[in-house]
């Protein structure tokens, strides 16, 4: 914005009702002339400066890029120095939660109120998603201010406290639940996916990107290596060869049961991908949801679905009974009385490592955790959240104290 020296110019004068006024005119933001009056030259000068500043502000806002334009530019600038996986995550969140809500507004016009209203839908997401979107808002508007795209930063008082829905503690599947799950889907499309999750602990994006060139079944100790990640953009799969963190690149030994499963799967496979669609390509997001539906439909929990009857969309509720066959599909038996998520398979793997007394550093490596804090948080909850087992340890510990105390008293 242009700076003006405080030099009071010469103004014209005019007589109004016998009083002398100083007069000048300025051009507003639309190019129209506006007449200004003042009793003194100083008063008129202040009015002129205020009017010109207002014009400058309006012109500045009008020239400001839209939120959508600047966000796309910001993402392009980030691509120079962040990993592709991180950029993919940023792009998805910026377009879904920032551009979608505020994209048409000018950057210089956005207020804190605008942002807080835009964050209402995000507050229904998890705490981690909410926090990451807040960080993106702050980063984008701070960069805009530093580049003089905006004068003031509306995010300086923005914070993530109390936003998002806390996620419940993840529960691992019991051995009995894991076996029932595998029995329910034996021979079905999600079987290999579930086996890899339970016996290798890979993340969903790691399983769906796994290719046979990363599975070593003919060595003395079979193993697989994690070196690719699956993402989708507009429902199309994207396979990245650069992982989010260095720790994600790891070699996982294969238990005999998983090695045998993968040998059978490889014999039947006509694709370079371990999990593939009918064309041998990696799954789209919709195709993965369809794959997981084989598990959902075998779960004995109430569900709602819609059918068109006589041209109208009619809501139906299903109340499955454990052990019974589905009314419209005799091949489906409601055999699961618990929910299962893809991440739960990985959590079960990590939990089993801990219960088998695998040391924390090895658990961290096999899980692909970059931070030991993540591993230790899980380790502590799994290892020490057993009051019945800890009771004996504490009894022995306090027995020594009691013995010392009573021995002294005697």
TrEMBL record:
Gene3D superfamilies reported for this sequence: 1.10.150.130, Intergrase catalytic core
Family according to the record: Belongs to the 'phage' integrase family.
Keyword DNA-binding tagged: yes
Record PANTHER family: PROPHAGE INTEGRASE, PROPHAGE INTEGRASE INTS-RELATED
Keyword terms of this UniProt record: DNA integration, DNA recombination, DNA-binding
GO molecular function: DNA binding
GO BP terms: DNA integration; DNA recombination
Name of protein: Site-specific integrase
Organism: Dorea phocaeensis
Lineage per the UniProt record: Bacteria, Bacillati, Bacillota, Clostridia, Lachnospirales
InterPro entries per record: DNA_brk_join_enz, Integrase-like_cat_sf, Integrase_catalytic, Integrase_recombinase_N, Integrase_SAM-like_N, Phage_Integrase
Superkingdom, natural source: Bacteria
PROSITE patterns per UniProt: TYR_RECOMBINASE (PS51898)
A Pfam cross-reference name: Phage_int_SAM_3
Residue stretches making up the Tyr recombinase domain: 168-395
Coiled-coil regions, chain positions: none
Main function: Site-specific tyrosine recombinase, which acts by catalyzing the cutting and rejoining of the recombining DNA molecules.
